[in-house]
Design a protein that fits this description.
By secondary structure, the protein is α/β, with parallel strands linked by helices. The chain has helices spanning 13-26, 37-42, 101-109, 132-135, 143-158, 187-200, 204-214, 225-235, 261-273, 288-302, 320-328, 374-380, 385-401, 422-435, and strands spanning 4-7, 31-34, 46-49, 60-61, 81-83, 86-88, 170-177, 240-243, 275-278, 308-309, 332-333, 352-356, 361-367, 372-373, 405-411. It has a five-stranded parallel sheet with strand order 9-8-7-15-14.
Length: 436
């Protein structure tokens, strides 16, 4: 039985995609698009008129713009306006939703602006300051979800018998293991060089700490895995661990050698308990063969088929990065967020299928957007632990309110009991105790 029928005189892959995303987000499992007016007029269930034609004053009507019926990428003339205490654009001025909901949502979800010529940041990534969400001050909101909620409320108001079964709120803590240990298992050369640097810098704390670990007097400070196990058990959480396994160290790849038996044991142990994914090295960003080598290593070491990944330093560009992941066999990506500021990069807080604008088709890759990374709070936004806690709780609250999936990123080397990190560790624990 069809729950929702959409009428449009013309259709496209873009429209089919975004209508499906809307229906899944608000809890409609059976939906259809029709081009036949008679079929639409005679349908007695919930329906939306996506055309400029007026059939019945009582119908929900969304007047379409051009975006969903184009097959090219062009600069869009976007002017935001206030609507329902939020921002909206592609204004039409008609009906109870006076903007092209489908086109505006499509623009944000597909990251349309990232396919157009744009300024890069220091790391060669799309600069968040050039995004519409940042310029119009809605980066802190999952704006598309807010629009979808208004659409759902409108549908329920007009069709009281319509039963919606939206997703339930889920929290997914994720961890990027860039450096599994600080001193342990790093080898003679790296430890000697590190010790010399500490001597030159007169860093007595580091000297004592390193010698204590190497002489087996104390645990490595980055070895917080048992503490995390306890935290997850206490709050009934199912985390995801992403491992950086570059074969050779590089400027941005500082991981433990994949040849290390202890590193392999750590990966194997955590893979038995939790979901694990690949953290593609910086070096693999432009090298599909290297990416596939890292993926094969992680699959062999973990004993599992690896289907999830998140880009190291959030180094990604569309559509190339996602096309490369698909080619390697990855079908879940957790990179949709910024490595320079916290917020909702795609203005969305639920997993959703990736639409490849270069091929004009929906793919099998599912995007899992994150909105909070502690490294952004610490290094980029210069927040105190108290400010970071407040920010994270705000993101959690709005995601919970919208039945979304709240995804955070933490790093083991920033959750230690060392003097500079202990406040951030305590902040994370306080967040979990107050919210889960």
């Amino acid at each position: 039985m069809i729950q929702l029928l959409l009428y449009t005189p013309q259709s496209s892959a873009r429209l089919h995609y975004i209508f499906g995303v809307l229906c899944n987000a608000i809890g409609i499992s059976s939906y259809q698009i029709t081009h036949r007016q008679q079929e639409f007029n005679s349908f007695t269930g919930a329906k939306i008129n996506y055309s400029a034609d007026i059939f019945d004053e009582g119908l929900i009507q969304i007047t379409p713009g051009k975006l969903l019926f184009e097959d090219t990428l062009t600069e869009q003339d976007i002017e935001c306006f206030e609507w329902k205490n939020t921002k909206a654009f592609f204004e039409t001025g008609r009906g109870e939703m006076p903007f092209d909901l489908f086109a505006a949502s499509f623009y944000l979800l597909t990251r349309y602006e990232e396919y157009l010529p744009h300024e890069k940041d220091f790391y060669g990534r799309f600069a968040h300051t050039k995004s519409l969400a940042f310029k119009e001050d809605f980066l802190h909101l999952p704006l598309v979800n807010l629009w979808f909620r208004e659409c759902a409320l409108l549908l329920q108001k007009k069709y009281e018998s319509l039963q919606l079964v939206p997703p339930v709120f889920t929290y997914v803590p994720t961890y990027d293991i860039d450096m599994a240990w600080s001193y342990f298992n790093k080898g003679f050369v790296r430890n000697t060089a590190g010790l010399l640097r500490s001597v030159i810098d007169r860093n007595l704390q580091s000297i004592i700490e390193r010698l204590g670990v190497l002489l087996v007097f104390e645990d490595d400070p980055f070895d917080i895995y048992e503490w995390l196990d306890t935290v997850h058990d206490q709050h009934a959480l199912q985390p995801v661990y992403f491992f950086l396994v570059a074969a050779k160290p590089g400027k941005y790849d500082k991981n433990i050698s994949p040849k290390s038996r202890y590193f392999q044991l750590l990966i194997s142990k955590l893979s038995v308990m939790y979901t694990t994914g690949l953290h593609p090295s910086w070096q693999s960003g432009d090298n599909t063969e290297m990416l596939q080598q890292e993926l094969r290593y992680l699959q062999t070491t973990s004993g599992k088929k690896i289907k999830s990944s998140r880009q190291h330093y959030i180094r990604m560009s569309l559509p190339g990065t996602y096309q490369q992941l698909i080619k390697a066999g990855i079908n879940k990506d957790f990179s949709m967020g910024y490595g320079s500021i916290n917020g909702f990069r795609a203005s969305y807080c639920m997993p959703y299928p990736w639409y490849d604008l270069s091929a004009e088709q929906q793919t099998d890759l599912t995007v899992y957007p994150f909105c909070y990374m502690e490294a952004n709070s610490l290094f980029e936004q210069k927040f105190s632990p108290e400010q970071a806690l407040n920010e994270m709780e705000q993101y959690c609250a709005i995601t919970k309110q919208l039945n979304g999936t709240f995804i955070t990123i933490f790093h083991n080397h920033l959750l230690t009991e060392q003097p500079l990190q202990i406040a951030w560790r305590n902040m994370y624990q306080q967040f979990l105790e107050r919210n889960f």
